[in-house]
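Changelog excerpt

This revision adds worked examples to the README so contributors can see how folded entries look when concatenated. The first example is reproduced verbatim below.
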Amino acid sequence: MPECFPFCGWFYNLEKVRPEEVLAPPYDVVTKEEIEYYKKKSPYNIFHLELSESPSKAKELLEKFISEKIFLQERVPTLYYHELEFEYQGKRYLRRGFILLVKLHPFEEKIILPHEKVYNKVTEERLNLLKATSFQFSQVYALYEDPYLFTLKELPESLNFFLEVTFGTETQRLAKIQERSVIEKILSFLKPKRFYIADGHHRYNTALKYKAYMESLYGKEEFKDYNYISMYISPFEDENLLMLPTYRVFKNLDGKSFLERLKQYVIIEKESPILNSQESFEALETAQGDFFLAFEKKLYFCRLKEEIKKVLKERDPELSALPLWNFLQIFEEIVGVPEEKLKEEERVEFFSRQEEVLKRASQGDLGILFPMVSPEILKKIAEKEKVMPHKSTYFYPKILTGLVLAEVSGKRIK
C-alpha cells in the first residue's frame, strides 16, 4: 500500500514575489497564448521553469532563482494542507486536500491505479526536464477512499494559511501541518488505501522513468527522494469534488454527412439553436441525452438506441458507463479513423469549457459535449485495470503549478 511522507518542500519567497504573478495553471490545460501571458507576468513565473525553452535553460534559471532566494526550502518535514474555494454554475464549493510525498509503484502492483491512456512523446519531454532540474514543479492529483472524511477531521485546531491566491472566481490556500501526532494519524489512515490517479498520468509515468534512470546512476536505495512523487490528494467522498467531462472539437470533418450517419446509432431527441451561452447551457442541463452534438449553430441531443446500448455494454460492461467511450466507439465506425490518429494530425482539440465548443461549432467545426458522470465510474474502471480514452475527465478546478516544489536529486527523505 502507498507509503506517504511529509517533506521539506520548496516554495516561493513571498517577500520577494506576488503569488498572483508567479503561479500558473497546470501546463496541459493552457493555450500557447496563455503560456506567454503568464510568462510576461513575471520573470519568476513558474512557466519559465515548467515550460522553459530547453531543459538546460530551466536548470540555469532554477539555480538562479535559488541563489537569489526567490525559492526557499522548508526546514521541517511538512504535510501541506490545501483548500480550493471556487464557484460552479452559481454555487460555491470548498475542496480540501493534502500535498505530500508518495512512494512510486508500477501500475501492475495495483497500489497506484491509472484510468487514462498516456503518450510517450509527452513523457519524454517531461523526463528530459526532470533529468536537468531534479525538481517536480507540479503535483499529480490522486483520490482515496475516506467515507467519513476522517483525514479532514484530523486537522489541527488552528491552521495558519501562509499563502492565499485568487485567480478569477477561484481562491487557493496553503497551510503547513508540522505536528507529528496529526501527521501520523493522517498517514496511518492512508497507509492501507489505494490511490486513484485523477490527473497527471504523464507526470506519474515520467517519475517512474526518472526513478529507473536515477537507479541506473546511483543504485537502489529505499529512502532516496527519487523513489517518490509529490502528490495532491483528496477524498472521493468529498461532496465538493467535481469531475467534469472533457469536450471535443473536430476540424475538417464533414459535419452534415457525420450527422446523417450518426442517426443509425442514436435518436435525436431535440434540436436547439445555439443562441447564446446561457441558453445553451440551460438546454444541456435539462436535456435527456447520452451526448450532445454542436454543429452549424445547432445543438442536437443524442440518445443511444437501445440495441446500440446493448451492443456497447456487451463489448465492455465498465467502459460503456462512460458516454465519451460510447461516442468514440460510434465515431470510429462512422469515420473509420481512431481519435488518437486525428490527435496526431491536429484535427481534434480538447476543451473543458462549453463556451469554446459552442463558439467553434458556430464557426463550422463539429463539437461534442458530454454530461457529468460520478467519480465512482473512474474507480470501477481503474479497479478492473482498464483505461478510459485520453482526456476523458476534467477535475475542476485544477491545483495551481508552483505552490510547492519537490526536489528529487538523490537525497534521503528519512
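The second example, added in the same revision:
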Amino acid sequence: GYPGVWCNAPMDSIVDNWLMYNRECVSYTAWKVNMTHNYNATGWGNANMWPGSARSAGLSVDSSPRAGDVAIWNVGYYGHAMYVESVNGDGPINISQYNADWSGTFSYATVSASGLEFIHF
C-alpha cells in the first residue's frame, strides 16, 4: 500500500510526490488515485479544496458515489478526504483513509454517503 518511506516516517515530516505532507488524508488519497487511475493530483491542497481543484481540472464532482472515487467531507478547517473502495447496495460506502483520528494512521471504515462530495476519475 501507501509507501513505507511515508507511512513509517513521523507524520508531516516529508512532503510527498504530490506536494502534500505524509500520513495526511490528502497524501494518501493522492497516492491511491495515482496508483488506481494514473491521475496526478499534485498541489490540490487541503481536502476542502479538492472539489474545486477537480472541477478546474475538468473532473466530475457530485453526490453519487462510485468505487474509485475520492469522497470529501467538508468539515472543520481542512475537511477530510477518503478513497471509496466500494459502494454497498443499501447506501453506505466502504472507504480507506489516513488520519481520520488526527494520529496519522491508516484505517478502513463504512460510512454514510450523505453529505459527502465525490470526485470521479
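Reviewer comment on example two: The beta strands are 60-62, 70-73, 80-87, 93-98, 106-111, 117-120. The mean pLDDT is 97.
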